[in-house]
Write a structure and sequence with these properties.
The protein is an alpha+beta fold and 379 residues long. It is 25% helix and 20% strand. It has eight helices and 14 strands. Strands 8, 9, 10, 11, 12, 13 and 14 form a seven-stranded antiparallel sheet that branches. The protein has a three-stranded antiparallel sheet with strand order 2-1-5, covered by helices on one side. The chain has a two-stranded antiparallel sheet with strand order 3-4. A hairpin with a 2-residue loop joins strand 1 and strand 2. It starts with a strand and ends in a 6-residue tail after the last strand.
Length: 379
């Protein structure tokens, strides 16, 4: 776009050539109107507009007109941004706000030339204003840069992990009551992933990684999921473990998961202690409230095993409860059919990779610590 004074002097000459026999794609042509006076500053940014139309063939012209209008509006807004801050980089982002709104919302963001976390902090006032304008709740993010929709097919960066592997499971079997489950998206982290052999000792590491993935997928952080070595080094740096802990196969528990979340993400967690695994049968109300208000996965460790609790089905009238358990002891490939197969038990734990369980899944003769991560109240 070209700015002259404080006005955009651009003419949209053509959007594209279309026809039944056209094989040549053409880009929009924007030209500076002749006779403009004043000092001009030139910059380049990518137009990115959406328009909605019916499927009927006659609606194509209306869609083209809608794209033209939005392109001109986007150029005008970008010029205003650049006039205010010539160093910013205007970028159009589309956000899905389902179920609040069915059609994506487009926002032109004045991105500062900094890293992602600094950008998010600079854009906080703009996000707050948009949350109020769009009537969005003010305690969780909807409009952060990584939440922008992508319409490009790109190869995945980093390890490919299955997400929300509990979806599609059969019901728990409890009659009545209510099901309370994790909110949003998590990644299933388990033994032997990332070409790293942690079979027999890395279960809480993997549960913690699953929790980290939840915070990443809810866009509370852009930090990467820590490796086992990075986890160990952080615990040593915090003074919780000796130097020889790095590179070892020593276990960690829910208490370490709490410390790591606080140190790495600045996230606080509640710790729930029970002297016997069967005492969790009395924690239905507390666990239900966690999933309803916080919605994060729960890391639990006791005896020699660690799991991730993804939800509970709790009937307060009969006091019946079942636990939706994600088992990090799975050593196979990323195959959803195998993972959801209730007859296939993991050798280390003796349970399926994901499924509903009664209280017998937890040992009566072992105490358990549960790490209940709290959702940051931020946009």
């Amino acid at each position: 776009g070209t700015v002259v004074g404080e006005k955009v002097l651009l003419k949209l000459e053509q959007v594209w050539a279309h026809g039944t026999d056209s094989s040549t794609a053409t880009a929009p042509v924007l030209s500076l109107l002749a006779g403009a006076s004043g000092t001009s500053t030139s910059t380049t940014f990518q137009l990115d507009v959406l328009a909605m139309g019916a499927q009927a063939e006659q609606s194509l012209s209306a869609v083209v007109e809608g794209l033209q209008q939005r392109a001109l509006l986007q150029l005008t807004e970008a010029a205003a941004m650049l006039t205010t801050d010539p160093a910013c980089r205007p970028r159009a982002l589309h956000f899905s706000l389902k179920p609040h709104q069915l059609f994506p919302v487009t926002v032109l963001m004045p991105l500062p030339a900094t890293d992602l976390d600094a950008q998010e902090e600079c854009l906080r006032p703009l996000r707050a204003a948009l949350h109020r304008r769009l009537n969005l709740i003010m305690d969780r993010p909807f409009l952060r840069v990584p939440q922008g929709l992508s319409f490009k097919i790109a190869a995945a960066a980093g390890p490919v992990r299955l997400k929300n592997v509990h979806e599609g499971l059969p019901p728990s079997g409890i009659q009545g009551g209510h099901v309370h489950v994790v909110q949003g998206v998590y990644e299933y982290c388990h033994y032997m992933q990332d070409k790293f052999d942690d079979n027999g000792w890395g279960c809480m590491y993997r549960s913690y990684q699953t929790v980290l993935s939840w915070f990443r997928n809810q866009h509370y952080t852009s930090l990467p999921i820590q490796s086992h070595e990075q986890i160990q080094k952080m615990l040593v740096k915090m003074g919780d473990k000796p130097q020889r802990f790095v590179g070892s196969k020593q276990w960690i528990g829910a208490m370490e998961a709490q410390m790591l979340l606080d140190e790495y993400l600045g996230v606080s967690s509640k710790i729930l202690n029970v002297p016997s695994g069967h005492d969790l049968e009395d924690k239905g109300r507390e666990l239900s409230q966690h999933f309803d208000t916080q919605g994060s996965p729960i890391s639990i460790g006791g005896g020699v095993l660690a799991f991730t609790i993804l939800g509970v089905h709790y009937n307060s009238e009969t006091c019946q409860i079942k636990f939706l358990v994600l088992d990090p002891h799975y050593t196979g490939s990323e195959d959803i059919g195998t993972i959801q197969n209730q007859s296939k038990k993991n050798s280390c734990s003796g349970i399926p990779s994901v499924g509903w369980h009664d209280i017998s899944v937890f040992r009566k003769d072992s105490f358990y610590n549960l790490c209940l991560p709290q959702r940051p109240k931020t946009i």
